[in-house]
Amino acid sequence: MERDVDADEAVAAATHTPDAAPPASTTPSVSESAARGVVEASLAGTVTSPGELTILNVGFLTGEDGGTSRLAWKLQGEALGTASAPLVFIDALDGTELLRLEQMCSARHRKTYDAQNSADIANLRTGGGLLVYEESGLVAGVTPVGEVTTVHDLVGGMWSYYWNTFQRDAHDGRGGTVTSFANFDTARNNAFWYRDALWIMGGLATTDIVGHELTHGLVEKTARLPYVSWSGALNEHYADVFGVMYDRDDWDVGEGSALGVIRSFSDPTAHSQPRAMSGAATWPAGTLPSSANDQLGVHGNSGVFNHATYLMSEGGTHADSGIVVRGIGREKTEQIHFRALTWYMGGASRPVDARIATRLAAYRFAQKGLHGVTPEDCGSVINAYAAVGIGGVDTDNDCFADTVDNCPIDANFDQADANHNGRGNVCEPDAGPRCQRHLQTCMLDTDCCGANFCQADGTCGTGP
Ligand SMILES: [Ca+2]
Ligand SMILES: [Ca+2]
Ligand SMILES: [Ca+2]
Ligand SMILES: [Ca+2]
Ligand SMILES: [Zn+2]
Fold first, then answer.
1. Of the bound ligands, which one is closest to the alpha carbon of residue 406?
2. Is the domain defined by 106-205 classed in CATH 3.90.1150.10?
3. How far lies 431's CA from each of 268, 427, 434, 448, in Å?
4. Structure pTM?
């Protein structure tokens, strides 16, 4: 699309200098700490940056010329108790406030209702619930009972987790209202995301359960994984991942709730979930999803992916495959999962798609140096999936599984292959004699060492 701007006009606009008188002095007579005091008092909050002396002309910002420029202290403030974090400019000559620029453009929006034990979703969703909290606080004249306050606070915490960790503004990424119905039903003993709202029965308002349900909203707005079979198990998996990442200090889901622990990332089998593909539940071809078969195992088979996430983050040896994974920690693990879910996953995904998407997220981060992810970390991602039976291992931990690595015995993230013969530079003969202890195939004639042994360091020798 072309813009209707004349070139001369554009240059004139860019070089136009508005008329303004300079400040009376460029030496502050109000100290930085005094300016800080003014901001903290007016915001009933704190100042989170060092003061910066600057020349301010408010007219420039509002599009008007003229007036006197002011010498000002620029301070980042943060209000306590309300959603406000303005940049505040204090006149450095007389201490008056000149301007406030709000930096918190993405404020939370919550509406939390008391379902008063009703199970009538249609009625509740169309005004039948009792509105107890809005973002501004408690609705006048209403008394919160049961778990309404807990749900409201946990939903707020999850919003902050998404924002602080991924700069995502609510589940929909657009600052949409998060609607919750606490004290829902009395018989269902469940919590779920449905009709763009959280429904949660009494006794279930824990950090990880609320985080889990809100993440179903996130999945619905991003990868849209259908809630059936493997894509449903992945949907459940991501809900669990961001639930435990929000909860942070353990790898169980549901502890402290009326249900107790319902799933464990470190040992899925403790709660009747498989920890590897070999243990996943299957059904005869043509079996339709139903509540009796848990929509073809969505809450069961998610254990396979949950366990891969656990190994990726914490490291360890898989109990069945014996594959060893080097842990990369929660911070990198959550960033990689979030990118995989919101950028690369979609539709009727199969287990291998999770591995491909997650590895791709790690690969891109390693390429760009984002979130501290290294090629070796990407190798851990590959090995975490290999450990649970999805895809092959990456022995040299360079982000390329052995089967596609052009030199699987030496880490070569760049996969450089100067002579385009399919063998990476680091595996060419002039890089020194190499053999492959861990592979059955030889890349070079010299790999198999003739009558000698392939030693642990990858060279040929006389010992095993
Ligand atoms: Ca937990
Ligand atoms: Ca490799
Ligand atoms: Ca390699
Ligand atoms: Ca080559
Ligand atoms: Zn769920």
1. 3
2. no
3. 45, 6, 8, 16
4. 0.76
